[in-house]
Write a structure and sequence with these properties.
- The complex is a heterodimer of chains A (about 240) and B (about 210).
- By secondary structure, chain A is mainly beta.
- Chain A is about 5% helix and about 25% strand.
- Chain A has 2 helices and 14 strands; from the N terminus they run E-E-H-E-E-E-E-E-E-E-E-H-E-E-E-E.
- The two termini of chain A are about 20 Å apart.
- With about 210 residues, chain B is mainly beta.
- The chains are: A mainly beta (about 240), B mainly beta (about 210).
- At the A-B interface, strand 2, helix 1, strand 4, strand 5 and strand 10 of A face helix 1, strand 5, strand 7 and strand 12 of B.
Chain lengths: ~240, ~210
């Protein structure tokens, strides 16, 4: 396979400095980034296939003695490249807060209960058609210190690899119609509306399981498109 | 027409239990969390050939304070300059060596990797590149990862490296790891990363 990675596609990304999200102010480069050609070091990338995951790693409701509290949900979708071609056999990792909005991390001490039956980490590998699936509970919203009365919308953190180190993506999946969207500087750091909507899953009635779980679909489009002799103009 | 790609979002402050559960960060003081690590900070496999090295450094923000909730990922060739990736089709006898690692910073903003020194890899127009490691940094307060490169101070080939040549001379030093000594056959290198401000590390637009 030969892929190209147009840098123009990165216009969908937030800027490094996004002052509404205060922590970016001291953690973003202040000097211009240096443009460089993609060499073998950038065009290659690590491969973590099916041997990297164990049976059940994608079911966050079965990792403890009992079942976690909260709305059980299925989160699934396809990992694609910029030409909408599936990215097979690639590692997808997630982590999230529990149904009350609390993470199992020492630094999260906000007054919401931990759930002894929920740790909130999962991983899986896409199948030959680029599909992945997780079973989990819907994460709660939680307060954070960015500004007065700041709350993060419900979200699940995603980490995806793809074909090369340039397609590596860490992002967050949001839920449709979240009333906290207008107030969240992290979500709104993506200034293009169409790009922002890429991060919002869709409610997927057809994939719900009656009497058991609701379903949300989240397709992920990674950098990289097929290289063809006639199509090297970075559109 | 390309599809709009999925935008990046910050890794946030709580990634450790998902991505670096066994790392340096003491996010789980009682050590009760049981989640097998996929990618760690030790890249050395039994079949890895070449010079064993330990890279350590501190990640610093624009106020000069250590970033204690940061994740670094490294991607490198093996000691012969070959990548463990389908896009590198050259024969590779050390098939276990993946060349990829993750380290979370600790309370002092310090990370470390145990690996082998990479060989020279082909560059643009067939010109060789000096041995280097691609370094990616993710953190709370970073909405997207930043890419930099680590080169080795003791490599004469740095002078002819086509990527270092793109960097203004007075900033090249930020990409150079310095030897700190040899302990038990492992060569130590120091590579600090200043995300912003005076002596800011060079980051690349890739």
């Amino acid at each position: 396979m030969s892929l190209v990675f147009p840098t123009k596609s990165l216009e969908a990304f937030p800027k490094h400095l996004s002052p509404g999200y205060k922590s970016t102010v001291k953690r973003s480069p202040s000097k211009p980034l240096i443009l460089m050609p993609h060499t073998l070091s950038e065009l290659t990338g690590p491969v973590y296939g099916h041997d990297a995951v164990q049976e059940g790693d994608n079911d966050l409701t079965k990792q403890c003695a009992g079942e976690p509290l909260g709305e059980r949900i299925i989160v699934h979708g396809q990992v694609l490249d910029e030409d909408k071609r599936p990215v097979p056999d690639t590692l997808v990792e997630i982590w999230q807060a529990n149904a009350c909005g609390r993470y199992v991390h020492l630094v999260d001490q906000h007054p919401a209960p931990l759930d002894p039956n929920f740790t909130g980490a999962g991983r899986t590998v896409t199948d030959k058609n680029g599909y992945y699936k997780f079973i989990t509970v819907k994460p709660g919203a939680y307060p954070w210190g960015n500004h007065h009365n700041a709350w993060r919308p419900n979200h699940i953190h995603f980490s995806v690899f793809g074909h090369s180190f340039l397609s590596r993506l860490v992002t967050q999946m949001y839920f449709p119609g979240d009333y906290l969207f207008p107030f969240d500087p992290i979500f709104n750091s993506v200034t293009d509306e169409k790009a922002r909507l890429r991060m919002v899953s869709t409610f997927d009635l057809d994939s719900t399981i009656p009497d058991w779980a609701l379903a949300f679909r989240f397709d992920i489009v990674l950098r990289g498109r097929e290289a063809t002799p006639l199509d090297n103009d970075e559109h | 027409m390309s599809e709009i790609i999925t935008p990046s979002q910050t890794v946030g402050p709580f990634f450790a239990y998902g991505l670096t559960p066994k790392g340096r960060a003491k996010w789980d003081p009682n050590g009760t969390y049981r989640w097998k690590e996929t990618v760690g900070d030790n890249l050395i496999t039994p079949d890895a050939t070449g010079q064993k090295i330990r890279i350590q450094g501190q990640v610093i923000d624009g106020d000069g304070k250590p970033i204690n909730d940061c994740m670094l990922e490294i991607w490198q060739a093996d000691s012969q300059g070959r990548y463990a990736s389908p896009q590198d089709t050259r024969a590779r006898p050390n098939t276990q060596f993946k060349g990829f690692g993750r380290s979370a910073t600790d309370k002092d903003g310090v990370y470390n990797f145990d690996t082998v020194k990479p060989g020279s890899v082909p560059g643009p127009g067939g010109k060789p590149q000096a041995p280097h490691i691609v370094v990616c940094i993710y953190s709370r307060g970073m909405l997207r990862q930043v890419y930099t490169r680590l080169y080795f101070a003791d490599e004469a080939s740095n002078a002819a490296d086509p990527i270092l040549a793109l960097v203004p001379e007075d900033r090249r030093g930020t990409l150079i790891a310095h030897k700190t000594g040899v302990h038990d056959g492992v060569t130590g290198y120091r590579f600090d990363i200043r995300v912003q401000g005076a002596n800011e590390t060079v980051f690349f637009e890739v």
